[in-house]
Structure formats: C-alpha cells, structure tokens
C-alpha cells in the first residue's frame, strides 16, 4: 500500500509541477501578478487533499469496496469545504471573484480530481 501511495503522490506531484509551470507562464505572459491569488497554497492544498483522499480509499478498499465511490464524493465535498473556508473569503475581499482567482483554485482542483478519478476506477476494477 505504501508503494501505491508513493507512486500516486509522485505522479500527481510531477503533473501538478508541470501544470503549475504552464499556469505561471500564462499568468506572466498576460502581466498578471505571478504568485498572487494564493496560487501556491491552492496547488499545495489540492495536492495534500488528493493524497489523503487516495490514501483513505486504499485503506477502505478491502472492507468497503462497495462504498468507495461515496467516500470519493465525500472527499470532493471536503475539498470544496476547505476552499470555502480558506480561499473563498480571500477571493471575495474586493467583492468580486475574478477569473484569474477562480482559475487559481480550479485548475489544480480539476487536475487532482481527474487523477483521483483515474485511480479510483483502477481501484474499483481491481487493477491496483
């Protein structure tokens, strides 16, 4: 199980670093503040949450295979709860959530969600 978590963590980290680099490059190309809008905490929090959710799914796989989908959805709800607690109030300080602010959270969220979904499918099909 440690090997699977390590493999998942490493692959996710490499993908997020690549996406982060592209994200920052695009932001700088359009002369926006490169490391504003809590972009680094957003990537870090999404990464940590994805690893924790995947680890939880692996732990529950043997006894509760039939409810892993619900656990996964609960993990996604937990991510949005974290977003609303730690990020949303910061983004709404000026009364408007800009598309740059929204993308600072949504891009890493969607990347992590896609990778988590891919691995959940493999888990449910007993390919892990």
Protein topology:
Elements: H1 2-29, H2 39-60, H3 68-91, H4 99-124
Helix pairs in contact: 1-2, 1-4, 2-3, 2-4, 3-4
Molecular structure report:
There is one protein chain. Helices cover 78% and strands 0% of the residues. 23% of the residues are buried. The protein is built from four helices and no strands. The protein has one domain (2-124). The chain is globular. The longest helix is centred in the first third of the chain and has 28 residues, at 2-29. The protein has 128 residues and is mainly alpha-helical.
- Our Rg estimate from Cα atoms comes to 16 Å
Strand content: under 5%
Number of domains: 1
What is the mean predicted local confidence, pLDDT?
89
Distance between the termini: 9 Å
Give the number of DSSP strands: 0
**What shape does the CA trace take?**
globular
Largest sheet data = none
Tally the helices: 4
| Global structural class | mainly alpha
H-E string:
HHHH
Give start-end ranges of low-pLDDT stretches.
none
Give helix % range.
over 70%
């Amino acid at each position: 199980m440690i090997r699977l978590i390590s493999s998942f963590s490493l692959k996710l980290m490499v993908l997020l670093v690549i996406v982060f680099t592209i994200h920052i490059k695009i932001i700088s190309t359009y002369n926006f503040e490169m490391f504003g809008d809590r972009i680094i905490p957003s990537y870090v929090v999404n990464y940590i949450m994805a690893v924790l959710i995947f680890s939880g799914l692996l732990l529950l796989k043997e006894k509760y295979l039939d409810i892993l989908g619900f656990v996964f959805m609960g993990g996604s709800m937990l991510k949005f709860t974290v977003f609303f607690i730690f990020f949303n109030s910061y983004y709404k300080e000026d009364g408007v959530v800009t598309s740059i602010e929204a993308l600072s959270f949504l891009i890493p969220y969607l990347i992590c969600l896609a990778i988590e979904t891919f691995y959940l499918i493999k888990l449910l099909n007993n390919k892990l």
